[in-house]
Design a protein that fits this description.
With 393 residues, the protein is an alpha/beta fold. It is built from 19 helices and eleven strands. The radius of gyration is 21 Å and the shape is globular.
Length: 393
């Protein structure tokens, strides 16, 4: 059965080395983020939120209310995936890297820096203590334990990162004509490109990955790195679905193209599915018409469970049936009937292992961590973020 879980990078708050409180506050007050979560809660049994500093925890408490937040944890509706360190691009030929900052006796950490780079238990404690002062000292350890129980850590060694994030990203870009052309355009280069020495980052500088619109070649390299990180995180969490940048589907197809798999396999690898006539529940949540906590109750209805079960088995030809099931899952409330219509677009990945591959093919691509997973039967759905596009049309 397909996964009932999604790693949702739209709910990941990216940070640099500036004060995290401001970026977390901006995320909390942006109603579009709350709307996105409301919509996702109706699509999946479990939403896994990537985080560096657990700053999303006080935000979810603010959105849900403490009682509903704890219920969401207990039911498994909300879980977390801790990313240690930040993804960046370093000058002087270092290129893509992950990095951490450590305090010194002369320059000790402020609390938000400790939350960003410290241990998970410490980070949660600091977020609750500083951002949720209404939670008593007696309640905090209990809530912290509940959050830790629903948290996994993204773990890999340096060799794995270099091979399957750094090298894979460079190969993805140079192996895709549209991406390599965009890098050349942004760099003003017509010859060979060294992806480890792109302009804009001096020898003693480091640019951190971010979710803002792509402005330069380094941004594009880091965005492709994030897509590879999305795939990695989804496999860490039991080969689940993931929410990622629009254009990721082309990168995955290019990976297979480089592997030498037969053309019919590659052409049938990804199919897009679009649901065109479904009410935008997030609009009602964003406008304050209904609280997001109400979505937690709605998703427990029998028809909501049936819809999510169908979603796990979705095929491109199922679009109209899924639209009907989604509307039925919302019930007969006049509020939902009056909502604007939205488009839900995602890519369905075929199970490569289901094809009768030529002898020796699997061994030939075994060096690629991602393709190896697909050959073993991993076939996620990719929800494509229209706000984060790799290459502008």
């Amino acid at each position: 059965m397909k996964s009932d879980t999604i790693i949702d990078s739209r709910l990941w708050i990216s940070h640099d080395l500036a004060k995290t409180e401001e970026r977390n506050a901006a995320f909390r007050t942006n109603s579009a983020n709350r709307a996105h979560l409301a919509n996702q809660l109706l699509l999946y049994d479990r939403i896994v939120v990537p985080t560096n500093d657990f700053g999303i925890v006080p935000i979810l408490i603010n959105w849900f209310g403490l009682g509903h937040f704890r219920s969401a944890l207990e039911s498994g509706a909300i879980c977390f995936l801790r990313r240690n360190g930040l993804l960046g691009y370093a000058g002087n030929g270092n290129g893509i890297c992950t990095f951490e900052v450590r305090p010194t006796a002369a320059k000790p950490f402020l609390w938000w820096q400790e939350a960003l780079f410290g241990e998970s238990e410490t980070a949660i404690e600091l977020q609750l203590r500083n951002m949720c002062p209404f939670i008593s000292r007696e309640e905090r350890p209990i809530l912290k334990s509940e959050i830790i129980e629903k948290t996994k850590i993204v773990q890999y060694d340096n060799e794995f990162f270099k091979k399957h994030i750094m090298h894979e990203t460079y190969t993805d870009i140079m192996g895709d004509e549209s991406l390599s052309s965009e890098i050349r355009r942004m760099s003003g280069s017509v010859g060979r490109i060294d992806l480890t020495r792109l302009a804009g980052v001096a020898a003693n500088q480091l640019q951190v990955s971010r979710v803002e619109p792509i402005k330069n070649a380094v941004d594009l390299v880091l965005r492709v790195s994030e897509i590879n990180m999305d795939v990695l995180m989804s496999t860490i969490y039991g080969d689940c679905d993931f929410f990622t940048s629009d254009g990721a589907e082309q990168i995955l197809r290019s990976k297979l193209d480089r592997s030498g798999l037969p053309r019919p396999v590659i052409e049938g690898f990804i199919k897009l599915l679009e649901l065109n006539d479904i009410p935008d529940v997030g609009t009602a949540v964003a406008s304050g018409q209904i609280p997001i906590s109400s979505i937690l109750n709605l998703r427990e209805e029998t028809d909501s469970h049936k819809f999510r079960k169908w979603m796990r088995k979705a095929k491109p030809q199922d679009a109209k049936e899924l639209e009907k099931l989604y509307i039925k899952a919302l019930g007969k409330s006049g509020l939902y009937q009056s909502l604007p219509i939205r488009l839900l677009r995602f890519a369905i990945v075929a199970t490569v292992g289901a094809f009768n591959l030529p002898a020796g093919t699997a061994a030939a691509v075994a060096d690629s961590f991602f393709i190896k997973k697909w050959l073993k039967g991993y076939s996620p759905k990719l929800f494509l973020d229209r706000l984060r596009k790799l290459v502008k049309n």
